[in-house]
Write a structure and sequence with these properties.
By secondary structure, the chain is of the alpha/beta class.
Length: 247
């Protein structure tokens, strides 16, 4: 898992940036992830995480969270490359990304929502999740690219909802699914703590309401047949979200 994730993420990012330099590209927008931000156990309690917060690579490696390590390293290397090579690089840092699909392959975030809706076998912690609409991520990319003054990181995480509140919200409009079981009490030890997208909003970003994103996602999954039970293919929570079930 380590070699499969780290090398492609870091080397792949640098390959693209080197190609941009060779072809006199002046500005590049790199997509990162809040996986490169959330996992910092030393961040001051009560202070919202912003663009200055980075995931602790040693902490992630200790927990064998190689995806988080890869995202952090790739973003760090992209910004370092920009400084050394006179290339303007800005990074957009989205959280769990939901919304309508453009292709038949469901991303990891979509797999999470499908698991919650269909009712996987594992009881989940009642923890907070940050969600952004894929259409708003696209708007953020274009906005950051077009704004001359844009630079550095831009956190793209406008809304949060707990596991329990997510289930209750979905049950109101889509009551016929099994849904997962989750703890009643909010997980106070979650690594997912408040984050802010103020820098991106100050640039002019105006994201959609959370309810629109979630309901549009479910409607899309229904039309694609993704919420139907398939014999021999049990619904599984992606390993990336293991912190939602570990006790």
């Amino acid at each position: 898992m380590q070699s499969e994730v780290l090398a492609p993420a870091v080397k792949g990012t640098l390959n693209v940036l080197e190609a941009c330099s060779a072809n006199n590209v002046k500005k590049v927008i790199v997509v990162s992830s809040t996986a490169a931000l959330h996992f910092n156990p030393n961040w001051p309690e009560g202070k919202p995480k912003d663009e200055s917060c980075w995931s602790d690579k040693n902490f992630c490696m200790k927990n064998e969270d190689w995806y988080m390590v890869a995202k952090t390293l790739a973003e760090e290397k992209a910004l370092e490359y920009a400084e050394k090579n006179e290339l303007t690089v800005a990074t957009v840092v989205p959280c769990m990304t939901l919304g309508p699909l453009l292709h038949p392959v469901v991303n990891i975030s979509g797999q999470f929502l499908i698991y919650v809706t269909k009712g996987g076998p594992t009881v989940m912690k009642n923890m907070m999740w940050y969600i952004v609409d894929v259409r708003d991520v696209a708007d953020a990319f274009l906005l950051v690219y077009e704004k001359v003054e844009s630079s550095g990181r831009y956190v793209c995480a406008p809304d949060q909802i707990s596991t329990k509140d997510l289930v209750n919200l979905l049950k109101k409009t889509h009551p016929n699914y099994n849904y997962i079981s989750c703890d009643n009490d909010l997980d106070s030890n979650s690594i997912v703590t408040p984050i802010t997208s103020d820098k991106l909003k100050n640039l002019g970003w105006k994201p959609k309401k959370l309810e629109e994103t979630i309901f549009d996602s479910i409607e899309c999954y229904e039309k694609a047949g993704l919420l139907q039970d398939v014999e021999g293919s049990p619904c599984r929570l992606p390993q990336l979200f293991h912190m939602a079930t570990d006790k």
